[in-house]
Design goal:
- Helix 6 packs parallel to helix 7.
- By secondary structure, this protein is of the alpha/beta class.
- Bound molecules: iron/sulfur cluster.
């Protein structure tokens, strides 16, 4: 189904998170009105998913939420709506209202479940409160999304793996789709100030790929689906990033890292047999996957390559690289 995204740049956010500047990310400072949305959805000629991102949807006054949600009835039959919101503005009452519309997913900006990290980032809730909101979304029968972040101030890799396990415990097999975003340093944010003062060091691209790769492997092990790793590229994002792991293919690098780690775990020194479709995960981006596999196994790069076999039809043959 075609997606129709609307960015409600920091619309109705209860406070400003230290790393956030939605206007800089999207290049849009004004919020589309329900009338703007209505015009756009009415012009659609096939069912679409109306997406409200970039703000705290359920923190809007109920009347405003309703105006946005009702636009789905002007869209072609079969259309749905999804939105992202702040864990603080989730309640059974809010969700009862929301349940009257064909909502495909409610995404919660979880960021982290580590209370110290949440405090530094000015998120305004505790890890337990975020989990309670997620549980409420699931209990009310919605498909939930959890937006997690890596490389936040004071956040450790192990703590975000732990976050994932805590989410898994409360979901009890119900659908939660993940997005993993790196913490980038955007101009005109409190985080940029911390960075200038030397109080925060962002992740490198390699550090972010490794962290996201480990998180991805854990997510797969626990049976989550991962919808996205990394932010949507845009000119305005390019202009406004002043630090951190900004890379247009971060998701691909993370998948390469995830593969390298899982190969090492399955067989510490190889040989490794892989389907051909995985070739690019090892060879792409200057052989990032091969180099990482060589680093973590301690094998020379050329030897690492000799120990990888790709399936080609029914036979396994060495890939000439
Ligand atoms: S709640 Fe989301 S959109 Fe609002 S300031 Fe925080 S990160 Fe930005």
């Amino acid at each position: 189904m075609k997606r129709l995204p609307f960015f409600l740049s920091m619309g109705s956010c209860p406070r400003r998170c230290i790393y956030c500047h939605q206007g800089e990310i999207t290049g849009t400072y004004s919020i589309p009105s329900p009338e703007d949305v209505l015009r756009a959805v009415s012009a659609m000629d096939s069912p679409c998913e109306i997406c409200f991102f970039g703000g705290s949807f359920t923190c809007f006054p109920p009347g405003r939420q309703k105006q946005y949600l009702e636009t789905v009835f002007a869209a072609p039959s079969g259309s749905t709506v999804r939105f992202s919101t702040h864990p603080e503005c989730i309640s059974r009452t809010v969700l009862k209202e929301t349940g009257q519309y064909p909502v495909s997913m409610i995404e919660l900006g979880i960021s982290s479940l580590d209370d110290r990290v949440l405090k530094v980032c000015n998120r305004g809730y505790s890890g337990e409160e975020a989990l309670a909101s997620l549980r409420t979304v699931l209990d009310e029968g919605f498909h939930a999304g959890a937006q997690m972040m890596i490389g936040l101030p004071g956040q450790a890799r192990e703590s975000s793996l732990q976050d994932l396990r805590r989410i898994d415990e409360i979901r009890k097999g119900r659908p939660v789709t993940l997005r993993i975003y790196p913490c980038l340093v955007l101009d005109k944010t409190p985080l940029a100030e911390l960075c200038r003062e030397g109080k925060y060091t962002p992740l490198s691209v390699n550090g972010a790929a490794i962290w996201a790769g480990e998180l991805l492997n854990e997510a797969v092990r626990l049976g989550f689906s991962v919808q996205r790793i990394g932010l949507q590229e845009s000119e305005s994002l390019n202009r406004s990033v002043i630090g951190g792991p900004h890379h247009p293919a971060l998701g691909e690098l993370a998948r390469s890292a995830a593969l390298s780690f899982s190969l090492k775990t399955k067989n510490p020194e190889g040989p490794w047999n892989l389907p051909s479709r995985s070739v690019s995960l090892l060879t792409g981006h200057g052989e990032y996957g091969f180099r990482l596999l060589s680093e973590i196994t301690g094998l020379p790069l050329s030897e690492t390559k000799h120990r990888v076999f790709f399936s080609n039809g029914d036979t396994m043959q060495p890939k000439v690289i």
